[in-house]
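Database export, one record per block. Field names are fixed; values are copied verbatim from the stored entry.
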Amino acid sequence: MSYSDDRAESFRQAGLYLGRILKGEKPADLPVLQPTKFIFAINLSTAKALGLTVPATLLARADEVIE
C-alpha cells in the first residue's frame, strides 16, 4: 500500500509557478503550496506474496489497485 501526493498535480503546480516567475514575479514572493490531492494505491500481487489478505472495504477506498 502506498499513500502519496498526485505527481501529475505536483508537476502542474510547478508549471504554474514557472509561468508566474517567467512573467516577472519574484520566487521569494510566491506562496508555498502543499499537495491537495493524494493517491491511495494497493498492490495485490505483493500482498499475496507476503501472505496478506486485503479487506474488500479497503480495496473499495483505493484510488488504484495493482493486480
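Remark 1: Residues 7-22 form the longest helix (16 residues).
Remark 2: The radius of gyration is 18 Å.
End of record.
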